[in-house]
Amino acid sequence: MSRKLLFISFVVSLGGFLFGFDAGIISGVMNFAGPEFNLTELQSGWVVSSPSFAAMIAMIFSGRLSDFYGRKRLLLIVAFLYALSALMSAFAISYEMLYIARMIGGLAFGAALVLAPMYIAEISTSENRGKLVSIQQLNIVLGFFAAFFSNFLFNKYTGDSSWLNEENVWRWMLGVELIPALLYLAALFFVPRSPRWLYLRNKFEEAKLVLSKVHGEERGLVEINSIEENIEADKTKAKVAIKDLFKPALRFILIVGLVVGVLQQITGINAVYFYATSIFKQTGIGTDAAFSSGVLLSTISVIFTFVAMYLIDKMGRRPLLLIGTAGIALSLLLCAYGFNSATYKLTAEDITTFEFDGSNKLEVYANQLYDNDVSFKNDMKLALGNQVYGKNDGAILEAATTINANLILIGILGFIACFAFSLGPVMWVLLSELYPNKYRGLAIGTIAFINSLISSLVQLVFPWELSNLGNAVTFFIFGIIALLGFFIMLKILPETKGKSLEQIEAELVTK
Predict the structure, then answer these.
(1) What CA–CA distance (Å, rounded) separates 49 from 453?
(2) Given Cys at both, which of 88, 139, 471, 475 links 336, Cβ 3.0 to 4.6 Å?
(3) In sequence order, what E strands does 308-439 have?
(4) Which of 487, 378, 425 is nearest to 41 (CA)?
(5) Which residues of 312-348 are buried (b: 16+ CB within 10 A; e: fewer)?
(6) Which among 17, 23, 228 is positioned nearest to 116, based on CA atoms?
(7) Which residues, in sequence order, are bridge partners of residue 161?
(8) Is the predicted pLDDT of residue 137 greater than 60, yes or no?
């Protein structure tokens, strides 16, 4: 594998870093912005989920638009939108401005998550395609790590200086995303256009030049011949329409893509990432420990993404997906068990330690034992109001909760680890391989649209679920869904390891 190919793949997938950064940042932001704007649970859910909603729009159109205007040109627009979103979010003066700014960022990462694996699959070889497409997931988890570490530092030093306080810290958290966005924009100018796209646009000489520079003369010639054979076969085919995806020849790979695409999000991964700080606070470990646990979570993501990159072209796509999904199901059910065993009680002494205004209103609930989090939190909100409780829930839960926090931590980290070596990176590798050159942009865009729709719905309702169903029931639902997904994939999942895109098409489409 050439250094040039590695550099190109890393730069193109930096959009994934920005997606991960945005997702990680918001988990800390809502601890401050939510109470400041006095948001309801659904409003908080909308601020968090609105980028995923916007991403749906970008995903359905970005693949097709890139077929017309090129992968690189759209990626440049993506980088600009990321920068604009960071600035607008940092200066938001209302709930409406905040979610609109985040939706602009959603358009960016929706397009980036489709375009990057598509571009990398089109410039890499069959031997290293899985590893290179996985770089996007590596960048996503590096973005998570950077965001959680950034949030940890901002939370730690809030109040230590005149320019950083509880009123503006969330603006700094959001605004710092401008730095990687501008670096991404600059780096994209050093990336060539996709050779397979160039062939589709009849720019044969430029495509050959790109492949030769990236792979060397000998291997570049092999890739050129493979593309030319595939393009020649496509000449007799009609133009692509979305109804073509439902043709009998494509039906099987469409079902596989949809199953994996839905399962990746419906098991709750973005609920855990986007609300990580809030979830850890539910265990009663306190606000500071919740922020530091986010750093641990993102570190696990990085480690196991490297595991995926090492194994994906050795073990194959199918084993990683099956093993990882089974682990996800067990981890989520472990979390459900841990939360189900928790109890909650505030003593009179606990209440006297609280320093916020109105804490004496909790005295009526002193020494009352609760066996579920929903009843306890509802009584706390009834006494204090949503805004005061939202600002102080970490301290209240830390004092009241009796729970095996280590069990929850093991479950959450197990979920993150299993996702990081399976559904996270492998889904995008699989989608970039399954579909013929002519249908790839439309197929990936369509599945990514559904993937993002599921993601936005999960994020939107997650605060409501925690408030109305409770922690245990919420994680139990995710765990059962993951278990069902495992058995479905066991039945239908093909293996694409070590095969050229053209081989895969011959085996899965022609048949």
Answers:
(1) 10
(2) 475
(3) 343-344, 401-402
(4) 378
(5) bbebbbbbbbbbbbbbbbbbbbbbbbbbbebebbbee
(6) 17
(7) 164
(8) yes
CB of 133 closer than 8 Å to CB of 429: yes
- Model pLDDT for residues 24-50, shown as the tens digit of each residue: 888 788 878 888 888 888 898 899 889
Both structure tokens of 56: 């749906």
**Alpha-carbon distance 345 to 229, whole Å?**
70
- What is the phi-psi region of residue 216: left when phi exceeds 0, alpha when psi lies from -120 to 50, beta otherwise? left
358 and 441 inside one domain: no
192: CB partners within 8 A, 6+ apart: 8, 72, 210, 213, 214
Instruction: Please give the model's pTM, rounded to 2 decimal places.
Output: 0.73
Q: Are residues 396 and 442 in the same domain?
A: no
| Tokens of residue 368, six digits | 């009352």
Write down which residue in 402, 418, 446 finishes a domain: 402
How many whole angstroms separate alpha carbon 368 and alpha carbon 440?
A: 59
Go through the chain and tell me how many residues it has.
511
C-alpha 288: how far from chain center? 24
- Which of 285, 391, 411 has its CA nearest to residue 340? 411
Identify the domain boundary among 402, 427, 453: 402
257 and 389 both lie in a single domain: no
Enclosing domain of residue 350: 343-402
Nearest to 27 by CA among 266, 268, 272: 272
Among residues 113, 106, 147, 105, which one has the least CA distance to residue 133?
Answer: 113
Which residues in 130-159 are b (16+ Cβ under 10 Å) and which e? bbbbbbbbbbbbbbbbbbbbbbbebbeebe
d(CA 142, CA 137): 8
In this structure, what are the phi and psi dihedrals at residue 93, rounded to the nearest 5 degrees? -110, 0
DSSP for 65-79?
A: HHHHH-HHHHHHHHH
Q: What is the CATH number of the domain that holds 72?
A: 1.20.1250.20
Closest CA to 130 of 507, 506, 508, 497: 497
pLDDT per residue as tens digits for the range 282-307? 777 766 677 777 788 888 988 998 88
Note the pLDDT tens digit of each residue in 420-438: 899 988 887 888 788 877 7
Number of domains forming the structure of the chain: 2
DSSP calls for 116-143: HHHHHHHHS-TTTHHHHHHHHHHHHHHH
CA-CA-CA-CA torsion for 55, 57, 62, 65, nearest 10 degrees?
-160
Tokens of 275: 């609300």
- 155: nearest Cα among 281, 299, 52: 281
CA atoms within 13 A of residue 159's CA, in its CB half-sphere: 3
- The pLDDT tens digits for 473-495 are 999 999 999 999 999 999 988 88
